[in-house]
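About this split. The held-out portion is used to measure sequence recovery: a designer receives only the structure tokens and must propose an amino acid at every position. Recovery is the fraction of positions where the proposal matches the reference. Here is one held-out target exactly as it appears in the evaluation file.
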């Protein structure tokens, strides 16, 4: 099993299959998009499968497919199918914005995808357009409906932004009354692709929680699973649950079990880490599986204690403020 110098067991790989996205969310990237990774610099399907296989050999038993938007990648569904056939892991999941997802849901179910994180920052069609700069609200809601129909666990990810969608917090909480979904409110982070935009969210974990508690005084704390990024709650009598992710204040780093691979093959041991080891180039240079394993083991040994330490080590504003699409979800 992979273990870092703090004794944390690393068993969760987040694999970004593409940097491109068909939305332009204000908290993620500029309106005109980003300088996308050139095709030759993206990992091939074969390289991704090789990396996943090496990680599962090292004890990783959970793989999440992220982006960008995964289904913007050509034949992404075939890649997911092939990953699902690898030995050694038990949990395959996906993060998506839902625009292209609905048509693939029966296949995802057949491949053993256990849960899907669906990005949805508002239940209002007009605000959806203002935040995402795209008129695709209906597609996301159809994806949500189909996921529930196929009994795939759904976690709705909502980035809370002052003066943009705070009025959606309570309606989203109300969504859990009848639906078996987890709605997770996320502190806004600096990964917006704009080097000049310093993010210090007013709507942090305590503010979000107190706002919910004002409307639902009987809110109950749930026991958080090990390595959970969210603090989890339930309204008595409601079907689904609520979570709050302290993504900016980074209070969940203590038992982090995650590692990331960017679309270009960069191994990143922390969301806030700059640089990293390019596993794709190692593969293209002829590295064996054993050599890749040694590189991964050494990298994880140097995993930072938390996101603050990782950001301090980065010392590069362009890396701190890069888009989440380039980092890998």
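Reference sequence for scoring:
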């Amino acid at each position: 099993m992979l273990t870092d110098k703090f004794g944390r067991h690393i068993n969760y790989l987040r694999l970004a299959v593409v940097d491109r996205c068909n939305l332009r969310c204000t908290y993620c990237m500029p309106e005109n998009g980003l300088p996308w990774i050139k095709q030759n610099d993206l990992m091939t399907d074969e390289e991704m499968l090789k990396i996943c296989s090496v990680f599962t050999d090292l004890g990783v038993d959970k793989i999440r497919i992220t982006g960008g938007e995964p289904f913007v990648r050509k034949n992404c569904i075939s890649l997911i199918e092939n990953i699902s056939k690898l030995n050694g892991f038990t949990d395959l999941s996906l993060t998506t914005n839902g625009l292209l997802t609905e048509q693939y849901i029966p296949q995802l179910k057949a491949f053993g995808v256990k849960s899907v994180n669906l990005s949805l920052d508002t239940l209002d069609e007009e605000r959806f357009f203002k935040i995402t700069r795209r008129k695709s609200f209906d597609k996301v809601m159809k994806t949500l409906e189909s996921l529930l129909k196929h009994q795939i666990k759904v976690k709705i990810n909502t980035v809370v932004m002052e003066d943009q969608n705070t009025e959606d917090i309570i309606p989203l909480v109300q969504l859990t009354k009848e639906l078996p979904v987890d709605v997770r409110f996320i502190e806004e982070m600096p990964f917006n692709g704009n080097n000049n935009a310093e993010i210090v969210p007013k709507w942090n974990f305590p503010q979000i929680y107190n706002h919910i508690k004002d409307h639902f005084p009987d809110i109950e704390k749930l026991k958080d699973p090990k390595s959970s990024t969210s603090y989890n709650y339930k309204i008595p009598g409601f079907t689904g649950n609520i979570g709050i992710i302290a993504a900016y204040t980074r209070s969940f780093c203590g038992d982090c079990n995650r590692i990331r691979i960017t679309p270009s093959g960069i191994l990143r041991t922390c969301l806030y880490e700059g640089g990293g080891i390019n596993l794709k180039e190692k593969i293209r240079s002829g590295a064996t599986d054993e050599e890749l394993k040694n590189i991964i083991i050494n990298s994880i040994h140097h995993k930072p204690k938390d996101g603050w330490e990782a950001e301090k080590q980065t010392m590069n504003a362009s890396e701190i403020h890069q888009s989440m699409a380039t980092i890998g979800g």
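Annotator remark: The first strand starts at residue 2 and ends at 3.
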